[in-house]
Every structure is written in structure tokens, then in C-alpha cells.
Amino acid sequence: MRKTLFIMSFAALFLYGCSGITVTSDVDKSVDFSQFKTFEYYGWAKNSDKLLNDIDKKRIETAFGDEFEKRGLSYVEKGGDLIVALYIVTEQKQETTATTTGMGMGYGGYYGYGPRWGWGGGMATTTYNTYNYTVGTLVCDVFHKTDEKLIWEGTGSGTVDSDPYSRDENIPKAVAKIMSNYPVPPLSDKK
């Protein structure tokens, strides 16, 4: 039960603190994305229910829907030109840092043309700190409806920040960052 609550606390992953996300994408360059006018959601991939509650799923779907609409695509329940599949992946990581502090004293001198001499002593202590963190990745796959071929994939990865109060603001920002690499820019950006 505790493990489930721990995973649920990271529900929308990096989306809660999107400033540090890393975005990547891949595209089928042979496809003319301007030909598409509608999109539909395939649904969430298996096991997403274990990581996201229904409220966060709706937030993410709405944010992607807004971004697709900015690019001239309309949402339809069935029969879209594009099929959008969303899923979440988490990975537990561990990092160790070392901090060294030292104390010492010394004395040295130089007299004219004579030899140099001195003495010193001291000690140092190194402290190691290990901490665990979760990296979350939100993936958006876009398929061509006719042949069900993957034509675009956008991902956003970052360290999980579980602040539930900033979801409404940060989810759209993170999704906009992921969609910034989509082959068709927002209509207001076109010149």
C-alpha cells in the first residue's frame, strides 16, 4: 500500500515542475503533416492507470488537445486522420555526492637567498550522500490512421516533482514544450 501511494504521489511526473524537462522527438520526414485535419485519442497505454489518476489523464489530454488545435487539427471521437497514443514511463535512479571538508595549518618562509623551509599538517573528511529520485517520461505517439504507421513521437523527461498544487499550470507548459518539435507549428506562429 505504501509503495502504491509512493508511486501515485509521482502521478504526473515531471509535469509538475516542467522547467527541467528534456524534450526529444522523432519524425517520419516523408509525411506531409499539413494534410491532416483531425485527430483522435487511442487511449492510455497499459499500466498508466497505476501511475496517473483520471484527473491528471484529463489534464494531459486537454493540454495535448489544445496544442493540436493550435496546429489546425480538430479532435474527433472516432475516424480521425491521426491517432494519438499517450503513456508514462518511470525509472528509479540513485545518485551519490561527495563533500570534502578540510582543516589544516602551515607555516613557511623564505629568507633572502637561502633555502625555503616550512611545515604543515591537517586533516580532511569526506562525506558521501546517496539519494534516490524518480525520472518520469511522458510519451506522445502519433500514428497515421490509414496504415497505423508511427509518424511522430515526442517525449519529455525530467526529475519528478510531486507538488499537486501546480499541476493545472505546469502540465500545459510541459506539453507545449514536448509539442514544440511537432512538424507543424502553431497557426499563430506561421508567417
How would you sum up this structure, described in words?
The protein has 191 residues and is α/β, with parallel strands linked by helices. 22% of the residues lie in helices and 44% in strands. It has four helices and six strands; from the N terminus they run H-E-E-H-H-E-E-E-E-H. The chain has helices spanning 2-9, 48-51, 54-70, 167-179; strands at 22-27, 38-44, 74-75, 82-110, 116-144, 149-159. The protein has a six-stranded mixed beta sheet. A hairpin with a 4-residue loop joins strand 5 and strand 6 (149-159). Helix 3 crosses helix 4 (167-179). It is elongated. The chain starts with a helix and ends in a 12-residue tail after the last helix.
Please provide a brief summary of the model.
By secondary structure, the protein is of the alpha/beta class. Helix content is 22%, strand content 44%.
Which short descriptors sum up this protein?
22% helix, disordered N terminus, 191 residues, 4 helices, alpha/beta, six-stranded mixed beta sheet
